[in-house]
């Protein structure tokens, strides 16, 4: 595979990782009252502060992963990984559930752990990009 195709495929993979976060951040911007209600539903107060922080991490982290090189992209990926871990622990507490609710939350929990792994891989790759270039 040539370098241009590899670069395009790598960008598309990062875009796939970021898609849910970009969508969620834009949706929260367009429906601020819904964003506030979501934060309040999970007991996060003040809801406006948590909604604004969520939007900033979702959109800012995604922008860094998609458009910034090296360590900046790594920082964006780690921000999204940390956000996803916190959101997963808050929003998919399967250990408190039973029956189908437990099944759904466990599946969502495990899927989110996979996203975290993907962002950590991006951070590791991007964090060593300059070092790899210097060795080439």
From TrEMBL:
Origin: domain of life: Bacteria
Membrane topology: Multi-pass membrane protein
Compartments it resides in: Membrane
Annotated keywords: Membrane, Transmembrane, Transmembrane helix
InterPro entries named in the record: DoxX
Record GO cellular component, one term: membrane
TM region positions: 7-27, 47-67, 74-94, 106-125
One Pfam family cited in the UniProt record for this chain: DoxX
Protein name listed in UniProt: Putative membrane protein YphA (DoxX/SURF4 family)
């Amino acid at each position: 595979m040539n370098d241009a195709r590899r670069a395009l495929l790598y960008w598309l993979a990062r875009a796939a990782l970021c898609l849910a976060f970009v969508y969620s951040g834009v949706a929260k911007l367009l429906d601020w009252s819904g964003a506030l209600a979501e934060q309040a539903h999970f007991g996060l107060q003040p809801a406006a502060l948590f909604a604004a922080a969520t939007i900033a991490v979702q959109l800012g982290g995604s922008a860094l992963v998609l458009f910034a090189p090296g360590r900046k992209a790594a920082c964006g990926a780690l921000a999204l990984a940390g956000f996803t871990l916190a959101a997963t622990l808050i929003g998919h507490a399967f250990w408190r559930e039973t029956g189908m609710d437990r099944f759904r939350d466990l599946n969502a929990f495990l899927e989110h752990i996979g996203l975290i792994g993907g962002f950590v891989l991006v951070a590791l790759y991007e964090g060593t990009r300059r070092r790899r270039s210097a060795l080439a």
